Amino acid sequence: MNHPTLDDDRIASMRSSVMQAVDQDINRRSRRARRTIGLAAASVLVVGAGSIGVDALSNMSTSSDDSAGTSSQSDSRLIEQPGTSSLEDSGSESADKPLAPEDDRKVITTGSISVTVKQPRVTAQQLSAYVDSIGGRVDSRTEDGTGEDASADLLIRVPSSKLTATIAQLKTYGTVETVSLRNDDVTAASKDLDARIDALELSIGRLEKLLGTASNNRSIIAAESALTKRQSQLEQLESQQRSMDGQVELSTIQVSLAQKLGVESVEPGGFKGGLTNGWNALVSTVNNVVEVAGTLLPWAAIAVLVYGAYRLVSRRRGWS
Questions:
Q1: What is the H or E stretch that residue 317 is in?
Q2: C-alpha to C-alpha distance for 52 and 273, rounded to whole angstroms
Q3: Which of 214, 36, 43, 184 is nearest to 110 (CA)?
């Protein structure tokens, strides 16, 4: 039986086949390793992005609830951590906001007016009746003194559209001495309040839905706590909004009413009046002289007695 002879060509061919198989195996292992590394990196990126997304949703939902399109997952995050939400900083004053049209501006007007009148008490009653007739109100009224010392102070709230007419009405009572008015534009603050109220109402609606679908006591307690906090914040903002709207609708004016001093009359006395005044002055002078003499007379008597005793003693001793 003849065995094949391994010549150089056959050996080279076998070596080439073996090396080719090894290269293919190495390439397969490299591709597998790259795929594994790629999948691992992708998983890390997905997990990291997911964590960042969850944190971002949590921060957005807990800062001011000002996003109307936030999904219910952010409220789930709020239920897990109800103590992290805060709406106090959600509305910030934005100086770069465009000015609202003139009709949409909200302005609070306050000021003081002083008036001198003949009868402050009577004028105070008239002014109170006028303020009631135009839809305003008198928050406080103080009357003091009588006659020339009489005065009155009123804190009135009048419709902003009637402020000019009120000043004109005060001029009919007497002399308007001073008028000091101040206008504060609260348009931006009012819009911020409206936005925060809308955001809270949306958040309350989502929390109520989550409360209805909560399946365990922990979720229910957390949802109720967050819902109670949102409702309390909403009531506070609505109270601020009502107060601001009231100040915009009714201007606040402090009115001071003082007594107007009358002109003193001068009555001419004539000759008779002058004679009477002169005689009275003479009598008053004589009375004063007599009073002084009566006061000094006892002291003069004592002085004479002392002087007489001194002269008597001097003569006896030969002093003079």
A1: none
A2: 105
A3: 184
Q: What is d(CA 316, CA 319) in angstroms, rounded to the nearest whole number?
A: 8
Nearest alpha-carbon partner for 112 in 182, 174, 180: 180
Three-state DSSP state, 143: strand
Q: How many residues does the chain have?
A: 320
What's the sign of the alpha-carbon dihedral 203, 207, 208, 213? positive
Integer Cα distance of 204 and 210 in angstroms: 10
Q: Smallest Cα–Cα separation from 61: which of 39, 86, 44?
A: 86
List Cα–Cα distances, 175 to 8, 148, 251, in angstroms: 132, 16, 22
Locate 114 and state its tokens. Answer: 């002083």
112 sits in which H/E element: strand 107-117
Kindly report, residue by residue over 134-180, the tens digit of the pLDDT. 999 999 999 988 777 889 999 999 999 999 999 999 999 999 999 99
CA pair distance 89, 246, nearest whole angstrom: 24
**Residue 112 burial (CB count, 10 A):** 16
Whether the Cβ atoms of residue 252 and residue 155 lie closer than 8 Å to each other: yes
Cβ neighbours for 109, distance < 8 A, ≥ 6 positions apart: 160, 163, 181, 182, 183, 184, 251, 252
pTM greater than 0.70: no
